[in-house]
Amino acid sequence: MPGVPDSFHCDTCDRDVAAEAATRTETIGGLDPEKWQSFCCPDCGRKLKTVFVGLEGEE
Ligand SMILES: [Zn+2]
């Protein structure tokens, strides 16, 4: 999936979290949840990154 890295780094746990292992949550603040997802650490719950996951060809 374009735009989504293979893994994220959790500063709190000081470890890398695979993208497939991270907890995906809907973003807040009015971003389209079908285009943006927040990836959170499965251990501590810290939000690691908000990633654009929108499909190509859509504005
Ligand atoms: Zn963590």
Query: Biggest β-sheet: count, sense, barrel?
Result: 3 strands, antiparallel
Instruction: Give the CA-based shape.
Output: globular
Arithmetic mean pLDDT:
88
Helix-strand makeup class: mainly beta
By DSSP, the count of extended strands is 5
Strand content: 35-45%
What gap, in angstroms, lies between the N and C termini? Answer: 17 Å
Number of alpha- plus pi-helical segments = 0
Q: Which cofactor or ligand species appear?
A: zinc ion
Q: What string, H for helix and E for strand, traces the elements in order?
A: EEEEE
Record the strand order, biggest sheet: 3-4-5
Uncertain stretches of 5 or more adjacent residues = none
Which properties best describe this structure?
binds zinc ion; single chain; two-stranded antiparallel ribbon; three-stranded antiparallel beta sheet; 59 residues; globular; mainly beta
Q: What would your notes on this structure say?
A:
The protein is mainly beta. It has one domain. It is 0% helix and 39% strand. The strands form two sheets. Strands 3-4-5 form a three-stranded antiparallel beta sheet, with no helix packed on it. It has a two-stranded antiparallel sheet with strand order 1-2. Strand 1 and strand 2 form a beta hairpin. It is globular. Bound molecules: zinc ion. The site of zinc ion has 7 residues, from loops.
